C-alpha cells in the first residue's frame, strides 16, 4: 500500500484494505479523478455499487495503472441517481448499465441505457426502466440499434446457435453482405452468481464450486482469483509451492484453450489439418490437468489457502514427460496453420480493432495485446514477492484475426517453455495452509490473467467478515464490445471467424 | 501441401480404440462412487454435512449417493472417518431413470437400451440438437470434444446438428436459467417426434452447484421427459459416449463386473 495521494487509495494486486481507510469522496472528486486516470492511460478494472445506509449506494471503482502496477481505489456515495460518465469514458458503459440493473437506479445521461442481463433488481422495489413488477422479464426485450434504408436488412441470430455453444443474441444491420453494425444482447446464461455470494451463504462449501463455474473453461483462473481474495482478507499468502502449482495450472489452462482456439480458427477458414490436429491436442492438455486433479477442467485443484491436491515428484515427472510429447504435436499443428498462404489471405485485415478503440473500450487480454496494448496482469500486477509465471507478454500490432491468432501462438510458446521449466524447479514444502478468519469491514482485490484476459474479483466484507458485496469482472465483460466493433464493415459471412478469434465467454459475462 | 503431408504422417492415427478397448482414465479421475455402508457408524452424518448439494442421504436407513446431485468433488471421502466412501475410476455413470442414479447398497446399473421400435429408428443414426441453458462451457467443451478425431462420434452414426428440425432429440446442459427456459422449450417443440431428451451434467440433472438459486430451474427434470441422465461436472467424454452408445444398444449388454480394487482401468 502506498498511501493516500489525492482522492482514493493506492494498493497492489492481492492487497486488503480496511474500509475505514477508503472514505467516500464527493461525486465531483470521484468522477474527476476517475476520468483523469483513464486519460492518463489507466483502465477501469471494476466499477460497482454496494448497499449503504438507507437507500444510498456505496460506489467503488478499481483503476489499473499498467505502467506502475498500482491499483487506485475510489469510493463515493450516491442516492437515487447515478450520473453517467460514459460519454467521456466509453469503457464504463456496461458497468453503469449493470449498476442500474442490480440496484434499480437510473443513470442520467447514459447514451445507450438498457438492461445487461435481464433480471430483477436486487432491491425489489425499484427498477431502472420502470418495468411492470408483475410481468416476467424477457431477455433481449429492448430497442436495438437499427439502420433504416431500402436496401438495409437486419439479421437476428440466437439465442440458440448452430453449434455446441452457449446462448446469446446477435443483431446485424447489413447492407448487402456488409455489416454496418452489430449489437450483442446477452443475459441468457444469468445464474445469479454474485447475489448468492452475499452474507453467510457466501461462506458455504458450494461457493468454491460455483466460482469454479463462473466460466467453466476458466476454472483455474476464477478459482485462483477467489483464492487470492480469501487469502488477502485472511492476511496470509499461500506457500511458494502452492503459488507455483497454481501458476502451472493457469498456464495449462491457457495452453489448452489457445490450442483449441487456433484449431477453431482453422475450422472457420477451412484449413482442415490444423483443425483436426488441434482439436485432439487441446484434449491432451486437458488430460494433463486431469493428471493433476482428476478433472479435465481443474475442478477441485485450487482452493483458498493453496492447492487441494498433493503433487509428488513422481506426478511432476509424469507431467513433464507427457508435456514434452504434446509440445512437438502442438508446434507442428500451429506452424502449419500460420505458414499457409491461404490462411494468411483469410485472416489478415479481417475483423480489425484499432488500438484507439481497444483503449477506449478498455479491452483486455489477447484482444488488447493483438492491438498493441501491453495489458497483462501476470507482468503488470504481480502478486506477492514470489512471482510465478511466464516472463514475456506476447504482442501484435494489427488488431485483426491474424494478430489475435499470432498472440495465441506466441503465448503457447512462452507458456510451454515456462511450464516445462517450472515443473523442473517447483519449490518444496507444503502447498496448503489454514486460513485465519476474514478481516471485517475490508476490501480485497485480486487480478488474475486468465487465458482470455484479466479476471477481476473484488470482495467487500461486513462487520462479521462475511461478503457484503462480491464483484466479478470476467475479461469477456469488456471484450464483447470489441467483437461488435470488429464486425463493422466486414462481411457477415466472416462473423464465425471473427467471433472465434475473440472466443468470449457468455456465462462469464452473464454471471 | 508439401508441408502438410509429412506433418499429417507425423501426427499419426489417433482415434481411440474404444469401444473395442476400455479407455484408460487418469489416475485421479473420480468416477463411480463406492459406498461401503457396512462401515457406517450409528448416527454418523459427517459425510452428509460435507456435501452442500444434498447428494448423500440416509433416508432409507443406509447411506445412498445420488449421482445426479453429485459434482464429484470428493469432499465426502475426506469427511468420512470410517473410509466408507471412495471414488472408483469407472466412467460408466449414465442412467435411464432418475432413481437409477442413487448408488449405495444397490448396484448401479448400466444404461438399458431403448425398446426395439426406437432402436430401429435411432440405433444407426441419431442426430442431436444441443441446448446450453446456463451451462458454464465445461459440459459444452467436452461435448465438442466428442467430434474430434480422438472420439470420432460420427463413426457411431451420432451427430450434433445445427437445427432442431434436423434432430431426433435434444441434449441439454446447464441448470436451465430463467432466461433460457422458453428458448429451451421452443427448441424441444421444434424437434419432430418421436424424440429423445438427454440431460448431461450435474446442472442439467439437478441444478449442480447452482441448485436452489432463484435464477435457475434446478435442471431440466420437471420441464421435459428425460430419457437419459449423464452425471458429472462436467461428464467425462467417455461417460457421455458410454451413455449414448448404450441407449442405442450399440454396446454389449454386459453386467458391471465387481471392482475389488476400488478403481477402474
Short description:
The complex is a heterodimer of chains A (511) and B (265). With 511 residues, chain A is α+β, with helices and mostly antiparallel strands.
What does this structure look like?
The complex is a heterodimer of chains A (511) and B (265). With 511 residues, chain A is α+β, with helices and mostly antiparallel strands. Chain A folds into 2 domains: 3-139, Beta Polymerase, domain 2; 221-467, Orthogonal Bundle (Cytochrome-c3 Hydrogenase, chain B), CATH 1.10.645.10. Chain A has helices at residues 27-39, 93-103, 205-212, 219-234, 240-269, 272-293, 313-338, 341-347, 355-361, 365-369, 377-380, 401-424, 475-486, 495-502, 507-510; strands at residues 3-4, 9-11, 16-18, 43-51, 57-64, 71-78, 81-83, 106-108, 152-157, 169-175, 178-185, 302-303, 306-307, 442-449, 454-461, 467-473. In chain A, the strands form 5 sheets. A 5-stranded antiparallel beta sheet of chain A has the order 1-2-6-5-4. In chain A, strands 3-14-15-16 form a 4-stranded antiparallel beta sheet. A 3-stranded antiparallel beta sheet of chain A has the order 9-10-11. In chain A, α3 (205-212) packs across α4 and α7 runs antiparallel to α12 (401-424). Chain A is globular and about 60 Å long. Chain B is of the alpha/beta class and 265 residues long. Chain B has a single domain (1-265), classed as 3-Layer(aba) Sandwich (Rossmann fold), CATH 3.40.50.12280. Chain B is 22% helix and 14% strand. A 5-stranded parallel beta sheet of chain B has the order 7-6-8-9-10, with helices on both faces. In chain B, strands 2-3-5 form a 3-stranded antiparallel beta sheet, with no helix packed on it. In chain B, 51% of the residues are buried. At the A-B interface, α3, α6 and α7 of A face α1, β6, α5 and α6 of B.
Amino acid at each position: 500500500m502506498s498511501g493516500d495521494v489525492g482522492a482514493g487509495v493506492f494498493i497492489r494486486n492481492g492487497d486488503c484494505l480496511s474500509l475505514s481507510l477508503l472514505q467516500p469522496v464527493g461525486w465531483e472528486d470521484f468522477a474527476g479523478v476517475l476520468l483523469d486516470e483513464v486519460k492518463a492511460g489507466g483502465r477501469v478494472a471494476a466499477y460497482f455499487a454496494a448497499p449503504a445506509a438507507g437507500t444510498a449506494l456505496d460506489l467503488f471503482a478499481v483503476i489499473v495503472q499498467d505502467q506502475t502496477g498500482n491499483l487506485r481505489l475510489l469510493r463515493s456515495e450516491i442516492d437515487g441517481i447515478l450520473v453517467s460518465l460514459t460519454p467521456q469514458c466509453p469503457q464504463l458503459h456496461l458497468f453503469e448499465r449493470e449498476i442500474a440493473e442490480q440496484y434499480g437506479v437510473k443513470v442520467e445521461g447514459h447514451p445507450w441505457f438498457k438492461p445487461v442481463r435481464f433480471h430483477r433488481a436486487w432491491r425489489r422495489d425499484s427498477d431502472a426502466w420502470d418495468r411492470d413488477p408483475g410481468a416476467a422479464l424477457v431477455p433481449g426485450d429492448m430497442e436495438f440499434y437499427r439502420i433504416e434504408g431500402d436496401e438495409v436488412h437486419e439479421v437476428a441470430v440466437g439465442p440458440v446457435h448452430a453449434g455446441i455453444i452457449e446462448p446469446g443474441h446477435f443483431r446485424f444491420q447489413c447492407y448487402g453482405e456488409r455489416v454496418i453494425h452489430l449489437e450483442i444482447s446477452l443475459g441468457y446464461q444469468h445464474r445469479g452468481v454474485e447475489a448468492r455470494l452475499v452474507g453467510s451463504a457466501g461462506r458455504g462449501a458450494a461457493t468454491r464450486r460455483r466460482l469454479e463455474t463462473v466460466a467453466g473453461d476458466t476454472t483455474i483462473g476464477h478459482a485462483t482469483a477467489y483464492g487470492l481474495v480469501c487469502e488477502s482478507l485472511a492476511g496470509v499468502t499461500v506457500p511458494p509451492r502452492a503459488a507455483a502449482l497454481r501458476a502451472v495450472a493457469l498456464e495449462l489452462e491457457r495452453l489448452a484453450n489457445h490450442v483449441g482456439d487456433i484449431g477453431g480458427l482453422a475450422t472457420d477458414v477451412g484449413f482442415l489439418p490444423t483443425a483436426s490436429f488441434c482439436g485432439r491436442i487441446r484434449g491432451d492438455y486437458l488430460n494433463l490437468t486431469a493428471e493433476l486433479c482428476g478433472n479435465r477442467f481443474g475442478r477441485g485443484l485450487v482452493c483458498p489457502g493453496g492447492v487441494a491436491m498433493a503433487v509428488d515428484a513422481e506426478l511432476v515427472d509424469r507431467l513433464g514427460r507427457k508435456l514434452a510429447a504434446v509440445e512437438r504435436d502442438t508446434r507442428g499443428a500451429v506452424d502449419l496453420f500460420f505458414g499457409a498462404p491461404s490462411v494468411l489471405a483469410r485472416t489478415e485485415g479481417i475483423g480489425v480493432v484499432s488500438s484507439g478503440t481497444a483503449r477506449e473500450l478498455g479491452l483486455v487480454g489477447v484482444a488488447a495485446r493483438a492491438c498493441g496494448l501491453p495489458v497483462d496482469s501476470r507482468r503488470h500486477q504481480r502478486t506477492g514477492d514470489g512471482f510465478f509465471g511466464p516472463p514475456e507478454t506476447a504482442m501484435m500490432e494489427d488488431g485483426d484475426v491474424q494478430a489475435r491468432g499470432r498472440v495465441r501462438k506466441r503465448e503457447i510458446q512462452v507458456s510451454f517453455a515456462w511450464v516445462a521449466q517450472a515443473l523442473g524447479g517447483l519449490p518444496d514444502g507444503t502447498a496448503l495452509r489454514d486460513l485465519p478468519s476474514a478481516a471485517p469491514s475490508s476490501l480485497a482485490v485480486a487480478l488474475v490473467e486468465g487465458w482470455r484476459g484479466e479476471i477481476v474479483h473484488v470482495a467487500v466484507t461486513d462487520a462479521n467478515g462475511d461478503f457484503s458485496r462480491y464483484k466479478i469482472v470476467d475479461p469477456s465483460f469488456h471484450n464483447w464490445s470489441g467483437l461488435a466493433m470488429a464486425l463493422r464493415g466486414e462481411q457477415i459471412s466472416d462473423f464465425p471467424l471473427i467471433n472465434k478469434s475473440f472466443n468470449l465467454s457468455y456465462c462469464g459475462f452473464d454471471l | 501441401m508439401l508441408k502438410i503431408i509429412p506433418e499429417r504422417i507425423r501426427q499419426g492415427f489417433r482415434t481411440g480404440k474404444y469401444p473395442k478397448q476400455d479407455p484408460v482414465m487418469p489416475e485421479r479421475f473420480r468416477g463411480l462412487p463406492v459406498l461401503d455402508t457396512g462401515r457406517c457408524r450409528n448416527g454418523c452424518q459427517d459425510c452428509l454435512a460435507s456435501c452442500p448439494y444434498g447428494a448423500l442421504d440416509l433416508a432409507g436407513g443406509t447411506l445412498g449417493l445420488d449421482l445426479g446431485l453429485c459434482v464429484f468433488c470428493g469432499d465426502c471421502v475426506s469427511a468420512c472417518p470410517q473410509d466408507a466412501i471412495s471414488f472408483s475410476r469407472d466412467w460408466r455413470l449414465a442412467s435411464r431413470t432418475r432413481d437409477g442414479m442413487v448408488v449405495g447398497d444397490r448396484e448401479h446399473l448400466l444404461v438399458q437400451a431403448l425398446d426395439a421400435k426406437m432402436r430401429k429408428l435411432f440405433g444407426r443414426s441419431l442426430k442431436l440438437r444441443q441446448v446450453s441453458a446456463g451451462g458454464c462451457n465445461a459440459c459444452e467443451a467436452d461435448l465438442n470434444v466428442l467430434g474430434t478425431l480422438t472420439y470420432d462420434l460420427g463413426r457411431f452414426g451420432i451427430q450434433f446438428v445445427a437445427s432442431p428440425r434436423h434432430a431426433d432429440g435434444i441434449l441439454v446442459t446447464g441448470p436451465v436459467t430463467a432466461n433460457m427456459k422458453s428458448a429451451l422449450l421452443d427448441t424441444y417443440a421444434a424437434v419432430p417426434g418421436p424424440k429423445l431428451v438427454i440431460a448431461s451434467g450435474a446442472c442439467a440433472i439437478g441444478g449442480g452447484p447452482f441448485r436452489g438459486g432463484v435464477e435457475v430451474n434446478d435442471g431440466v427434470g420437471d420441464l421435459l421427459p428425460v430419457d437419459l441422465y449423464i452425471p458429472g461436472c462436467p461428464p467425462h467424454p467417455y461417460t457421455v459416449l458410454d451413455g449414448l452408445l448404450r441407449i442405442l444398444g450399440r454396446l454389449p449388454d454386459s453386467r458391471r463386473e465387481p471392482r475389488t480394487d476400488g478403481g477402474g482401468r
